């Protein structure tokens, strides 16, 4: 493994750094979506009983304990429950636009890494081929076989390394984008149900 990394040359360093960063982001986002989903399920279960009994203090405490984007928007709705219905909805919509970036956190860097890793692999391929042709040009028909093999290895290893980082990054980026869209839709549905109860249309 280490011999392959050495064969890839200096281009391998940024590719490895991209791989480490992508791995961190993927693990962090998987954990985040799992935890927030679990907390939101519990939050909505608790809120149903609290809102039915108009126990708004306990509902607010549950929101604070959940500490999710959904709970933050629900807390805003609870704080504005005495407002005019239109004003409350406007406040809730504004709060939603504030919390959505919490779902999208680190996804832009992950998408950037998926593109950069491919380009770095391509760059390594180009530099490796340049070295290979330089060896051929300097040494007659074949040049030094050892140097030529090293240049070709650099071209191939960096290409493979770039793809190894890029492919999972693209897959998880698209997966997380779909998760974000689903979570936003779930949040809107949950908050709408809370607002309906707070406005007294459903008891």
UniProtKB/TrEMBL annotation:
Topology class, membrane: Multi-pass membrane protein
UniProt key word Acetylation: no
Keyword set includes Hydrolase: no
Pfam families the record matches: MotA_ExbB
Stretches assigned to coiled coil: none
Domain of life (superkingdom): Bacteria
Residues annotated as signal peptide: none
One GO BP: protein import
Subcellular location: Cell membrane; Membrane
Family: Belongs to the exbB/tolQ family.
Name the record gives this protein: Biopolymer transport protein ExbB
Biological source species: Treponema porcinum
């Amino acid at each position: 493994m280490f011999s392959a990394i050495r064969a890839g040359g200096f281009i391998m360093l940024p590719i490895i750094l991209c791989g480490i960063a992508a791995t961190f982001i993927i693990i962090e986002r998987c954990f985040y979506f799992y935890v927030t989903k679990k907390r939101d399920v519990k939050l909505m279960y608790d809120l149903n009983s609290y809102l039915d009994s108009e126990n708004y203090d306990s509902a607010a405490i549950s929101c604070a304990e959940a500490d999710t984007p959904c709970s933050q928007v629900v807390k805003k709705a609870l704080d504005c429950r005495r407002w005019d219905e239109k004003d409350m909805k406007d406040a809730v919509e504004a709060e939603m636009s504030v919390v959505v970036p919490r779902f999208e956190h680190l996804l832009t860097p992950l998408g950037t890494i998926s593109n950069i890793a491919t380009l770095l692999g391509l760059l390594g391929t180009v530099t490796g081929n340049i070295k290979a042709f330089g060896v051929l040009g300097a040494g007659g028909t074949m040049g030094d076989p050892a140097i030529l093999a090293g240049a070709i290895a650099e071209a191939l290893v960096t290409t493979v390394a770039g793809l190894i980082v890029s492919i999972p990054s693209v897959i998880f980026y698209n997966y997380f984008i779909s998760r974000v869209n689903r979570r936003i839709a779930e949040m809107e549905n949950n908050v709408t149900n809370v607002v309906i109860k707070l406005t007294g249309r459903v008891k």
